[in-house]
Amino acid sequence: MSRSVLVTGGSRGIGLAIARELATAGDAVAVTYRSGEPPEGLFGVRCDVTSAEDVDTAFGKVEAEQGPVEVLVANAGITKDTLLAIMSEESFTSVLDTNLTGAFRVAKRAVKGMMRKRGGRIVLVSSVVGLMGSPGQTNYAASKAGMVGFARSLARELGSRNVTVNVVTPGFVDTDMTSVLSEDRQKAITATIPLGRMAQPDEVAKAVRFLASDDAAYITGAVLPVDGGLGMGH
């Protein structure tokens, strides 16, 4: 049965792979994007998740097009990497505002409909960095670690309404963001990964598809790593 799905930050990379994976499974999938054009074959709504007004407007358009959101994937995120000693306050707060508070804004807008329907799926896309830490990424790591506490608290709030809330923590993924790294840097990264390679976006997407499926109906508050073993023990 087709469900109404919204993937934030779904115009490229991991978000686009997730959107296409869920569409292939038969769901009606909408994506948010900040610039450019929406992906071909998907319903796109322009939205900046740092704006509660934008979020509300985007949800209204999605609801009009395909009904109340039954599956929410909070994927939108940014990085502004630099060492803490020289990091500006804006670089810290803007990353948290997009990555963590953005997830709060979209989840808050989605949960009322899910609670009324007594069912729903929320998946937050975090990062192995949120569990392991990474030099130069105190802002990003804090935002991604915060997603875990947020998701687990929300899972406890919504469990009685049959709404599950889970987190996926990708490691290094072969996307536009990692393709700009030098060959030496990429080799150094893969040397730290037990499986010896970066993930493909569709490998993350398949994990999200599982958590959004009926097969995962009894899983909530979980953190599912898709990192090739990089974050073992965290």
From TrEMBL:
Domain (Ketoreductase): residue spans on this chain: 3-176
A Pfam entry, by short name: adh_short_C2
InterPro entries membership: 3oxo_ACP_reduc (IPR011284), KR_dom (IPR057326), NAD(P)-bd_dom_sf (IPR036291), Sc_DH/Rdtase_CS (IPR020904), SDR_fam (IPR002347)
Top-level taxon in the UniProt lineage: Bacteria
Signal found in the keyword field: no
Annotated metabolic or biological route of this protein: Lipid metabolism; fatty acid biosynthesis
Keyword list, A-Z: Fatty acid biosynthesis, Fatty acid metabolism, Lipid biosynthesis, Lipid metabolism, NADP, Oxidoreductase
SUPFAM superfamilies assigned to the protein according to its UniProt record, in alphabetical order: NAD(P)-binding Rossmann-fold domains
Reaction catalysis annotation: a (3R)-hydroxyacyl-[ACP] + NADP(+) = a 3-oxoacyl-[ACP] + NADPH + H(+)
EC number from the UniProt entry: 1.1.1.100
Presence of the UniProt keyword Oxidoreductase in the record: yes
Self-association state and partner proteins as the record states: Homotetramer.
Family: Belongs to the short-chain dehydrogenases/reductases (SDR) family.
NCBIfam families to which the protein is assigned, alphabetical: 3oxo_ACP_reduc (TIGR01830), PRK12826.1-2 (NF009466)
Reported function: Catalyzes the NADPH-dependent reduction of beta-ketoacyl-ACP substrates to beta-hydroxyacyl-ACP products, the first reductive step in the elongation cycle of fatty acid biosynthesis.
Name of protein: 3-oxoacyl-[acyl-carrier-protein] reductase
Species per Swiss-Prot/TrEMBL record: Actinomadura meridiana
